[in-house]
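lol so apparently i was supposed to do this last week
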Amino acid sequence: MQSLEAVLAERAVAMGADIRRGSRVEHFEASKDGVVVQAGGERLSALWLVGCDGGRSAVRKAGGFAFVGTDPEFTGYSVDVVLADPEALSPGRNYTATGMYTYARPGVIAMVDFDGGAAHRTQALTLDHVQSVLRRVSGADVTLAALSLATTWTDRAFQATDYRRGRVLLAGDAAHIHSPLGGQGLNLGLGDALNLGWKLAAVIRGEATIDLLDSYGVERRPEGARILDWSRAQVALMRPTPSTRALEAIVRDLIATGDGATYFAEKVWNLSLHYDLGGGHPLVGRSVPDFAFASGPSVGVRLREGRALLLDFAPGAPLAALVAPWLGRLSYVAGEPEDRLGLSAVLVRPDGFVAWASDEDG
Ligand SMILES: Cc1cc2nc3c(=O)[nH]c(=O)nc-3n(C[C@H](O)[C@H](O)[C@H](O)COP(=O)(O)OP(=O)(O)OC[C@H]3O[C@@H](n4cnc5c(N)ncnc54)[C@H](O)[C@@H]3O)c2cc1C
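anyway here it is w/ flavin-adenine dinucleotide bound
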């Protein structure tokens, strides 16, 4: 996470962003023309405010965004410990009559205690408390010699009903929270940023009307809702009941099939992400394939410029004259890729999603 933040910060600064660390947003006033933010003793005026301030987002609360969802069933613990009797716990993932724990030697433990989320942020994370939860969840008479790190989390799953209210927008955990099971939260937030970034830039530059920003919530809210449900399904398979263990065994059998493994891989890696952008071509609304060319950068490398791309694969570059007036706003790439996948031309949004495509025989 730290290295990712360093890469993103370097890129943001290179693009001209002014990062003010330690400056907390305390208050803001939004009007139809802009936002005035009180932060770190300063008053800052801006055209737009994007709350990327995490699950307890001050921007979301002050902005009056409704946040709806499901309350937690458990408190999750991530702890680093020294065990007096390391053999008392079974390595790997263990479902028990009272919860679930994972144990990686020598002392990295994650555990789930179905207490309705009661201990999260209310209970001091002392050695005695962690030991008593671990004993209850594992069913083993284990003893902690030391506790070096402990944090708690829950499966609370909530989402903002709107991602934009006037001049204020939400992205990342500010817009949606869910349990960290399955490790989906970070990518979900990055997806929000990718989707919103180019739209906001286009509106600020006067290249698009404000309506474009509504497509941000239209495209990203269903994706957030899908991930919340994915995390809820994981919780449903962890409940400490015999019927849940029976259901989990069936899901394991399904994952062991080719179709089941493909289904789960597509969901976890989000290969099936599809924005409904209209248009008849099956590629529209999907992530563009990373077309490679015999000379010059691939599509993935070109997208790092943050500009839309028009890919013209047909011999003789027939779209060159058509695109000429638009070259200030998109990059034009003419040439045949190593595999054109039956396509003659593709228009790619700056976030890498296909806006329009045409087949060779189209
Ligand atoms: C235990 C745990 C394990 C996880 N594991 C994974 C994983 O394996 N994979 C994965 O994808 N995700 C994981 N996640 C989720 C992931 O960490 C989050 O989804 C991600 O960090 C959200 O990023 P964000 O930028 O939206 O919010 P945050 O990372 O919470 O960042 C919010 C930022 O806003 C700042 N801020 C807060 N309030 C203010 C204010 N008033 N003014 C100014 N700044 C403010 C904060 O200081 C912080 O820098 C895990 C989460 C937890 C709790």
